[in-house]
Structure formats: structure tokens, C-alpha cells
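Render this sequence as a predicted structure.
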Amino acid sequence: MKNQIQFKKGLVANINSTITKNNAVEGEPHYATDTKEVYVFDGTNNIPIQRTKGVYTVATLPIGVQGDRAIVTDATAPTFLTALTGGGAVVTPAFHNGTIWVSA
């Protein structure tokens, strides 16, 4: 017998509304159809699940949105929360700040 996990789904504004929170069960998953994010209700709030885009060189980092995370394999002297420069040999986490990818 297969087990299925069912997600409540809707717009992120609706997922984080008081009505949804009042009817949610702790541990219940939610999927935001507009932002493509997954949330889990912790008993009080819907907590977003952090997503990692994958492993890239600086030059191949995808277009991101604020909060996206990735791993960069060719950074040159990365400094926390500054723009990344490729061509080096440092492996570092990267974070999209809403405008650009920066070292995390």
C-alpha cells in the first residue's frame, strides 16, 4: 500500500493568513502556487523550507530570487555578503539577496 503526503496549496498570502493558520495542524505541509515554495506549519506559523538551487560556477549561477541558495565551486576570495567573483578554487555557499548572488 502506497502512502501519500498531501499538501494544502494556494497563494502565499493565503497560506500565511490567520484563517489558514487557525485550521492547520502542526507538521502540516503547504505549497505556495505563486512562489513555488514549500512551508511546514510549526504550530504557530508556516515556516518556509529553504531551497538550494544546486552546485555551480559563478558564471553559471541561474537567475535567482531573494532567499535562493546555491553552492559555488570557483570563487575567488569570497567575503561574506559581497558579490562573487569566479575563476578561483574556493567552494562556498551563495545567497541571492534579491539583486545578485553574494557569498554566504
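Summary. Residues 11 and 86 are 37 Å apart (CA to CA). The longest strand covers residues 69-75.
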